[in-house]
Amino acid sequence: MAEHTPTTKPAAGASRGPSRGGASGSRGGAPTGGARGGSRRPFTERAKPEYDQKILAIRRVTRVVSGGRRMTFSVALAIGDRKGMVGLGTGKAIDTSMAIQKAQKDAKKNMLKLRLTKTSSLPHDIEAKFSSAQLMMMPNRGRGLISGSATRDMLLLAGVKDVTSKISTGSKNKLNIARATMKAFELVGKRVIHHKIATEKADAAADLAAAKALAEEAGLPAAE
Chunked in runs of 10, what are the mean pLDDT values of the chain (224 residues)? Predict the structure, then answer.
């Protein structure tokens, strides 16, 4: 018969072997119990933008100059508050974020306030044409929003419901379709002037601040 050798259990509190990273028991000797990388950053809620926005198209434009090729980005953007206000703008810059900011400013200058019915629909049929894009929109009495391409995005941003739209041509240029939609909106809306005035005042203040900074650097008296 095989002899049975009794096994001895380690005493309570004794470790089975050396721990990794020293006596602290953590990797690299770092103290345990704290959050990884220090304390958490305080949560700050982002401010809700004034208008919802939708990027309709982004194009990369290449221009050949004497030193080579120069690439810029062109952005078409629509904004709206889903309560009858909608705008369309374009912007071009060497960076997409800067082009989007320019498109937002342009869209605020071209805002329209639509005259809608109590059910947030159009008061009558409207037609418009821009370049090769020909558009027709009709109220459909409770059948929902039946539309496509850039027209649907702009109707959603404007908060228009129960409308059927039809693009009569085969144009796939979303910017032309969006401009045709804005021309149609002009038949049932009016321009929002205060947005344009506020944007122009902000641009003038920024230009004045830049002129003062340049004058201070050159040692010249600042312009009033």
Answer: 54 52 49 56 65 91 87 93 92 92 91 91 92 90 88 93 88 89 92 65 69 70 53
Alpha-carbon 198 to chain mean position? 21
Asked if 153 and 88 touch (Cβ cutoff 8 Å), the reply is no
Contact predicate 89/103, CB 8 Å: yes
Q: Which domains does the chain have, with CATH numbers?
A: 52-191 (3.30.160.20)
Which positions ≥6 away from 73 have C-beta within 8 Å? Answer: 58, 59, 60, 61, 92, 93, 94, 95, 96, 99
0.85 exceeded by pTM: no
What's the confidence (pLDDT) of residue 51? 85
Cα of first residue to Cα of last residue in the chain, in angstroms, is: 110
Per-residue DSSP letter, 146: B
Q: What are phi and psi of 193, to 5 degrees?
A: -80, -35
Show the tokens assigned to 224: 């009033």
**Are 136 and 193 contacting, i.e. CB atoms less than 8 angstroms apart?**
no
